[in-house]
Design a protein that fits this description.
This protein is an alpha+beta fold. The protein contains six helices and 15 strands.
Length: 327
């Protein structure tokens, strides 16, 4: 979609000889336009829900709330959080975990949906051989350890951690839903932990002031059944402090869309030629239904850049018409 959007923007600008937008400028504008529309998902969804509650919204094919929720849910991911002491040797357990970020989980977190604590450790060890979509450990006995299909295994030797679901169980070999031990460049030793998927609790977010009061009483203090967490700038601290192992914390959150990038390799008659085979190519992640809105947003940025009011006015007019169509 990104090439179609760029061609449309260039065609509109060239119609009145407003100037040329370089690929680098277009990529910057595309990033901002996608981010604006992503943030608008949530406000538009809130508007629709309010109309549904007021019984002035439709159902069946006119159920726009369902459409918006599906678009938003495309950005929900679940990842294992990395503890603050991950890189310390020897490892010291810590109940402080890094929030999702490009470094710790591979994507930026927009909003946390829930924090799940898996407190029943079934097995841990080191992989003894590499096989596709498998965990092989000749020193283990997964059957007697109580490991079963559906349990969660986490490769804690990588940063960010890699997590998969168990699909089959034998004494020393586990089948995995994802290839978390051979797919990526990994350390020679690959440590793992396996947690019971059916034994977990959702941690409640509390304020820093409230957690002190909760911990003062044996009745209200957080437990493995009713854990809690406080959020700092880049970390969360989970209570009780016994929840302190790698792989214990799974975070479900809304991530930001990836930064779009229109890529090219050569020039033809002075014009860059689109090439989506480049390693850094990234299309828009918001749906195709937003193509017109992306064009409109980018035109506004282009108009500001070249100091021409017409593209800005055109963009604003189209944006007002699009907003008026929100059910």
């Amino acid at each position: 979609m990104i090439n179609s959007v760029r061609n449309t923007v260039i065609a509109i600008l060239n119609k009145n000889n407003y100037g040329y937008i370089s690929p680098s400028d277009f990529n910057l504008y595309a990033q901002q336009a996608q981010l604006e529309l992503f943030m608008k998902y949530f406000s538009d969804y809130n508007t629709i829900i309010n109309k549904e509650n007021g019984r002035v919204s439709g159902t069946d094919y006119a159920d726009f709330g369902k459409s918006y929720s599906e678009q938003i849910e495309e950005f929900i991911v679940t990842n294992s959080l990395v503890s603050l002491n991950f890189s310390i040797t020897p490892y010291i357990p810590s109940n402080i975990y890094f929030l999702p970020s490009l470094t710790t989980t591979g994507d930026e977190e927009y909003m946390i949906n829930k924090i799940l604590c898996y407190t029943t450790l079934l097995a841990s060890g080191t992989v003894t051989s590499n096989s596709l979509n498998q965990l092989n450990d000749t020193t283990a006995n997964f059957v007697t350890s109580g490991v079963s299909v559906g349990d969660i295994v986490t490769n804690i030797s990588v940063f960010p951690h890699a997590t998969a679901t168990i699909t089959s169980v034998t004494t020393t070999i586990l089948g995995l839903s994802l290839d978390i031990f051979t797919a990526l460049p990994l350390p020679t030793l690959k440590d793992y932990r396996i947690f019971k998927s059916s034994v977990y609790s959702e941690a409640e977010k509390v304020s820093s002031g409230k957690i002190s009061l909760l911990n003062m009483s044996p009745i209200t203090s957080p437990s493995t059944l009713y854990p809690a967490y406080i959020q700092d700038k880049n970390t969360i601290t989970v209570y009780p402090s016994t929840i302190n192992q790698e792989g214990m914390i799974q975070c479900t959150y809304f991530r930001y869309p990836k930064v779009p990038k229109w890529t090219y390799t050569s020039l033809t008659n002075g014009e860059p030629v689109f090439d989506q085979t480049q390693t850094d190519y990234q299309d828009f992640e918001i749906g195709d239904q937003n193509e017109t809105s992306l064009v409109v947003k980018i035109l506004q940025y282009c108009g500001i850049s070249i100091r021409e009011p017409m593209p800005v006015q055109f963009g604003k007019q189209e944006e007002m018409e699009n907003n008026a169509q929100i059910p």
